[in-house]
Specification:
five-stranded antiparallel beta sheet; 13 strands; alpha+beta; single chain
């Protein structure tokens, strides 16, 4: 089962989250039939999105993260709610590029240079939106920069997706560790040393470490206290009714053209790739209802 843990350490001078997300990322891979590098890119952002989603307080709060670069993946988009549900897609799921110098999947090259945008819809008149330039485009470092630049919260983000030989997802997960404004210098130094000494997220997961183990490893002797455990997963909220609403937004002229073609149409949800079929009769009914 995929889940997120929430914790504090060093007398609440640090707050932290960690996730195990293999099933979530594998579900996304199955829905979108992503190539290994696309699975890694989407998987990292889904894992981060799920953790950032549960940081939000409101029942109906929604978070969207978009990485738009000039690389062949043609962008990665993830949406999460505050209950651990997350969904996402990449522009080009079939992208295949050579491994990087370390022999690893080159997520940075797949995404390319561009911008990271975070949109939080917290039920106010206007959603909060913030944009930062992509640094490495490897996802974790870009989110670390986002937290520092846009939210003024010094953070460490670690994310990883490990693929099996048959291109299914073997391991996926990550952590986000943040310093509170009143954190003492000694705690900051200690945390930096710990972060620099730990192995990669996928190595820790391969050893069988749980999210609890990962945060214990990151915090060392700083007294980690677990406060919450939240189930998480890939979940899309699309439905035929919602697609009907979207279709109702197209012009009379376009709808008439579709009807006059006399063929049923397929409408696909970007987030989960589910296809909804609409017969000519259904489209005619829609034409009457909404026009």
């Amino acid at each position: 089962m995929d889940y997120i843990v929430r914790a504090t350490a060093a007398n609440r001078q640090i707050r932290a989250f960690a996730i195990t997300s293999r099933e979530m990322v594998e579900t996304a891979r199955e829905h979108h039939n992503t190539s290994p590098v696309a699975t890694a890119a989407l998987g990292r952002l889904l894992s981060a999105g799920a953790m950032m989603g549960v940081m939000m307080k409101g029942e109906k709060d929604m978070l969207t993260i978009m990485m738009k670069g000039d690389g062949p993946i043609n962008g990665v988009t993830v949406t999460a709610d505050s209950h651990g549900n997350v969904k996402g897609y990449v522009g080009n799921p079939n992208v295949i590029i050579p491994a990087n110098y370390a022999g690893k999947l080159d997520v940075g090259a797949a995404i390319g240079y561009g911008t990271l945008t975070v949109i939080k819809d917290m039920g106010l008149k206007e959603p909060y939106s913030s944009q930062v330039p992509l640094g490495t485009s490897e996802v974790a470092e870009d989110l670390t920069y986002y937290f520092a630049a846009s939210e003024q919260v010094p953070s460490a983000v670690g994310l990883g997706v490990l693929m099996s030989k048959d291109n299914t997802v073997k391991q996926a997960g990550g952590f986000i560790v943040q310093l509170m404004p009143f954190a003492e210098e000694e705690v900051i130094d200690k945390l930096e040393k710990r972060i620099n000494s730990i192995s990669s997220v996928t190595e820790m997961l391969e050893k069988g470490m749980t999210p609890e183990d990962i945060l214990t490893e990151v915090m060392g002797d700083m007294g980690v206290e677990f406060t919450d455990k939240i189930e998480t997963g890939f979940k899309c909220t699309c439905s035929k009714e919602k697609i009907v609403k979207a279709l109702a937004g197209i012009s009379k002229k376009d709808l008439d053209e579709i009807i006059n073609d006399g063929k049923e149409i397929d409408v696909k949800c970007d987030f989960c790739n589910t296809t909804y079929k609409f017969s000519v009769e259904e489209l005619k009914t829609l034409r009457k209802q909404y026009q």
